[in-house]
């Protein structure tokens, strides 16, 4: 009689331990932890780079936009920049972040194109009236 195919061999067992309720990654592991400067460059080249990144992160974390929507929109913007032979630098990246954020919010009707145009005009007026080195204040 042939042995059953469901028979288990003792040597084939693998010992494992439960990780339920325990962190898998540790901050001390290589490649993890806070973002670091590269080549002496600041983490964000301009204050608006940090602001647009924070807004996108907050909108995803709050569920206003899904992580999948955000990834698709940002990926599409960065792909479009590549097709337009835009430089592969932080300015192109953050322009893509801003454009992706605008597209997602417009698609969800969270902000209209008219309101977006009005805000851009307000910001342009504000920064043109702001002395060099001073923070821009939107009134």
Description of the molecule:
The radius of gyration is 24 Å and the shape is globular. 8% of the residues are buried. The protein is built from 4 helices and no strands. With 139 residues, the chain is mainly α. The longest helix is centred in the last third of the chain and has 18 residues, at 90-107. The protein has helices at 47-61, 67-83, 90-107, 113-129.
How confident overall, as mean pLDDT? 77
Order of helices and strands: HHHH
Describe the biggest sheet? none
Summing up helix and strand content along with how strands pair, one would put the structural category as: mainly alpha
What's the total number of strands? 0
**Number of DSSP helices?**
4
Strand content: under 5%
Low-confidence stretches: 16-29
What oligomeric state do these chains adopt?
single chain
What gap, in angstroms, lies between the N and C termini?
A: 88 Å
Please give a handful of descriptors for the protein shown.
single chain; 139 residues; mainly alpha; 4 helices; 48% helix
Chain-wise SSE layout:
Layout: H1 47-61, H2 67-83, H3 90-107, H4 113-129
Helix pairs in contact: 1-3, 2-3
Short structural description:
The chain has 139 residues and is mainly alpha-helical.
